Amino acid sequence: MSSNLNISVRTSDLAVLQGVLDDAGYDSTSSLADPKYYNIAVKLLFNLYNDGMTSPAALSIELSRHFGKTPLSSKSSAEFEKNRKRVQGIRSAVVVKSPTGA
Q1: Which of 23, 26, 67, 87 is deepest in the core (most CB within 10 A)?
Q2: Are residues 61 and 70 in contact, defined by beta-carbon separation less than 8 angstroms?
């Protein structure tokens, strides 16, 4: 298994990725201090970007999550809860409004 990345990136895309790395604290000094984490961060960003994630904010969040800097929310999203109830066969409460609006 090769560790080389064979991904084509435009200069403007590279600037976005470099900005995400810089904002996360991965600059030239951190790459010299700990090249292992810098290389992992770069590979992660390239893979995410290649998979279609182009938002700098989303890339930053994923980078933080990967290295354990952003805690995951302990509250489930509304969409997750809705799907969970469907899978478990739990019916949602039905709200009935009276025709008079009372």
Answers
A1: 26
A2: yes
- Type of residue found at 68: G
In the structure encoding, which two tokens stand for residue 56, read together? Answer: 């700098």
Q: What ranges do the domains of the chain cover?
A: 11-70
Spell out the alpha helix ranges (H) of the chain.
11-23, 28-33, 35-50, 56-66, 78-88
Q: Is the pTM of this model over 0.70?
A: no
In DSSP notation, 69-93 reads -SPPPSSPPHHHHHHHHHHHTPPPP
Question: Digits of tens for pLDDT over the chain (102 positions)?
Answer: 455 656 677 888 888 888 888 888 877 665 556 677 778 888 888 888 888 888 898 888 888 888 877 555 556 667 777 777 888 888 766 656 667 755
Asked whether 24 and 41 are in contact (CB, 8 A), the reply is yes
The owner of tokens 């403007």 is 12
